[in-house]
């Protein structure tokens, strides 16, 4: 490698951040916090590891158990060499999660407390529902489901926008022991049908349509298509329940859709925008939610289920393409969702807690629905997007509801950073105490902006690492106890024993980098891949026997802080140096002109692999929109400077937008194809916007 000392082109536009700089927990949080110091965290952590039964049974005491188990509190096998993998917490105990989320809170006197504020796509379209009201609606809908013949163990697909009925539907399934399988209402008809078929769902709940920003989505027509595919494949779905969210039937629509009738607007919260939407109707199969609810009984005894009975399944993409139905069970998930929400967001009775994730993703399951309800706090269900009507929407909502705890994704933060700080600062954010991030490694640049601009340098930032499979946070700071380093998810949550393994499967103790694995089960870990236990064992337990393999890389620094370096398949090996794409991206993002960056591995005849970068420029950059050789030089220098000359990217291309999944994850698999000019990009069904692909192929540098 040549030219290691060339620092001549360092630009004034690059801000370096000291990776060891630490931020103290905000003083004002400590007095009332559940965990007040790092020492207290360490003591509790030790206990959670050495005596999981004692630790988790204390947490279980907060909940109602219809009957206790006489068997083992925890039983498991994590080692494929010893037999099949299994994980069981509190098997034999009987409970019901909807009872614990609702009846128990009402009994404690929280009946009149707001369970959820609902904030619609349009500012001004809003409502709220109390714990008592939510309980009543859930009981009614449970009776509706029972009336339709849905029983314990049946799978119910849910394809809904972010409306209160979505939570009602989840909790009603849980109340009668049915298993919900939520599909994010942004997936195509084909993806939806794949998931319905794989889970063998007997019913689906949806809504007529939804506005997402300024785009109108006809959800019912997507569901119609999906159900058509299911029928063609010989597995018709008997029941489709439709929430009337927005349609006022025009004459045109009602004339060619018999039996639609006029559905009374019985929605539990708020007024709804009335927009014309053409809906087709299949009598016998399709039912209006409000029609079914009209006659439903307001009382419904919960079905007492086993701790290890399934609660829900949720599909996550697999490296082989076919999505995996991650299965979670009742009691372990309940304990873990409630405990992580309580400690990581340091929940207090008067909190207004807002997680912006869609319930269609695991973050929404755990941190919009089950975690907050399990702690009896008031949450927000947000139907809108960060950019509608403008880039100030998040901060407007924070001001409106006096949000105290806020949880969002790095991708949202990075895209909002592009705009002037004034979009944030013109709103009152003095209620904020804790700011969370999840979904991807957060680059220090974005972390610091979140901390300084959004949090006014007065809030704790919790960078929470976890997965659909883990059920809840596994590596995370605790807001009043952990000194944070921007970009580090810091330390394990209670009950989590992380290890870093080398390629050969040796544990790296002390500082080092490798595969992130976990050594023992925690209550929230997935139990199987629905219908394919072998795939569960192969995906998570085969590579390193005795460990749960996350598929992510991690680095432990001298002080023991953990830094997630990204998916293992996002590692680049340049001339024998193992590099994470996240590291390179972070270096690029420190440049003033850069809004977002993604880097992938590209084959190289000498180095083996080299780095190929995609860079999105800030719209308002004072360097202009110009992507030119000068800028490429500066960016190259930035990476050399930050990581080392070996990390110097060979290619940097202009990317007006990056290919992302609907949950905002950059699809590096597709970027790798673009980098090598391979048009055979495979499955793009999870891509939010397919048009970016063509643009990126066109903008490839000539020499690549
Ligand atoms: C909760 C969720 C899981 C993958 C995970 C990792 C990435 C999530 C992260 C993070 C770095 C964080 N990830 N949180 N990487 N820092 N704080 O996102 O679940 O959709 O299953 O994705 O997301 O790569 O393996 P899921």
Automatic annotation (TrEMBL):
Renumbered to this chain, the Polar residues biased-composition regions fall at 1-13
The family assignment reads: Belongs to the ATP-dependent AMP-binding enzyme family.
Q: What is this protein called?
A: acetate--CoA ligase
Region feature (Disordered) = 1-22
In terms of CDD domains, this protein maps to:
ACS
User: Origin organism of this chain?
Assistant: Lymnaea stagnalis (Great pond snail)
Single GO MF annotation? ATP binding
InterPro entries (UniProt xref): ACAS_N, AMP-bd_C, AMP-bd_C_sf, AMP-binding_CS, AMP-dep_synth/lig_dom, ANL_N_sf
User: Which residue ranges does the record assign to the AMP-dependent synthetase/ligase domain?
Assistant: 105-527
